From TrEMBL:
This is Integrase zinc-binding domain-containing protein. It comes from the Eukaryota. Residues 66-117 form the Integrase zinc-binding domain. Transmembrane segments: none annotated. InterPro entries: Gypsy_RT_Integrase-like (IPR052160), Integrase_H2C2 (IPR041588). Signal peptide: none annotated.
Length: 148
């Protein structure tokens, strides 16, 4: 989130300090915007309208790169694709243009570019079974070295 906007919302929620506005309409618009946010332990959270007001941590610009790295490049992250990564992040964090930032990050990932998209599996063609032992498969291995 833009540092100025973050600071303005934080100041309003923390100390009820409003920035200067040209019109009362702009002022009311800002207050309505602030109603979507909440302060908790000096961090700014956005209320998630989709999940009964669940709080989403607001990510500032300097926190964005480490977060994307952790959610994509970390050994536990598995280099997920854009949609998977977005769905993983949107339930815990918020920042404007989230999807676009994630898409750009994944597209610029060197490891993902080298590996490319995974190929879709081909359709399976099951073998019709007419009865027990209708068809038997055997794997041959050998010759094997003699062990002492």
């Amino acid at each position: 989130m833009d540092p100025n906007q973050y600071h303005q919302i934080y100041q309003y929620l923390h100390q009820q300090i409003l920035p200067t506005f040209n019109t009362s309409r702009e002022k009311q618009k800002f207050i309505n915007l602030c109603n979507n946010f909440e302060l908790k332990l000096n961090y700014l959270y956005k209320k998630n309208k989709r999940k009964n007001g669940q709080l989403l941590k607001v990510i500032r610009n300097f926190e964005l790169e480490p977060l994307l790295y952790m959610m994509h490049n970390d050994p536990t992250a598995a280099h997920f694709a854009v949609d998977t990564m977005f769905n993983k992040i949107k339930d815990r964090y918020y920042w404007p243009q989230m999807y676009e930032n994630i898409r750009e990050y994944v597209r610029s990932c060197d490891s993902c570019q080298r590996r490319g998209k995974s190929k879709a599996n081909q359709l399976l063609h099951p073998i019709a079974v007419h009865g027990p032992f209708y068809q038997v498969g055997i794997d041959f291995v050998g010759p094997l070295p003699i062990t002492p």
